[in-house]
Amino acid sequence: MSDLSELYQGVILDHNRRPRNFGPLPDASAEAEGYNPLCGDRFTVRVKMDGDRIESVKFEGMGCAISKASASVMTTLVAGKTREEARAMFDRFQQMVMGQGTGAGPGGRKLAVFSGVSEFPSRVKCAILGWHALRAALEERTPAPVSTE
Fold first, then answer.
1. Which of 75, 48, 49 is nearest to 60 (CA)?
2. Whether the model pTM is above 0.85
3. Cβ 19 vs Cβ 69: under 8 Å
4. What is the domain-level CATH number for residue 23?
5. Would the pLDDT of 1 be above 60?
6. How many domains does the structure of the chain reveal?
7. What share of the chain is helix, strand, coil (3-state, %, to 5)?
8. Residue 141: is its pLDDT beyond 90?
9. In a domain? residue 91
10. Residue 127 CB partners (closer than 8 Å, separation 6+)
């Protein structure tokens, strides 16, 4: 097994068992729900903004190990970032899990552990679910759940 594969498994297991920033955020500025109808994963992402900067971000819900770990890592990386920085990170992450990029840039090393997801197309939607909800929250979309479909 390659070092990246071992790291991937370790990160997934750790963030699934002990997700960071999991729970309510009562003073959130915005929120959005993400739903994957193929597997039933469902997360709500809440953000508290300070101007254009993400002061804090939390998520709640349930899903597979990959979706929970990805949302957990996401929350650790986007806190303190501007909307634009978080959107750029979303774009890099999405390209990487689809096998179209490396995730290089801020947070790139932590994001790179998810690059192996691209080998399992059915799991890409799991990995990106929380990120779609974050993007919708940052864009302050309507309360209807965003879907991976």
1. 75
2. yes
3. yes
4. 3.90.1010.10
5. no
6. 1
7. 50, 20, 30
8. no
9. yes
10. 66, 67, 70, 93, 97, 114, 117
CA distance 80 to 64: 27
Q: Where are the beta strands (DSSP E) in 14-118?
A: 30-35, 42-50, 53-62
pLDDT per residue over 37-69, tens digit each? Answer: 888 999 999 999 999 999 999 999 999 999 999
Q: What is the dihedral of CA 89, 94, 99, 103, to 10 degrees?
A: 10
Q: What is the pLDDT of residue 107?
A: 61
Q: Distance (Å, rounded) from C-alpha 136 to C-alpha 118?
A: 23
CA nearest neighbour of 30 among 149, 147, 148, 146: 146
Range(s) of the domain holding residue 32:
3-144
More confident residue, 137 or 103: 137
149 lies in some domain: no
Of 134, 109, 121, the residue nearest 45 (C-alpha): 134
Q: Which two tokens stand for residue 76?
A: 């650790």
- Report the DSSP pairing between strands 53-62 and 146-147: unpaired
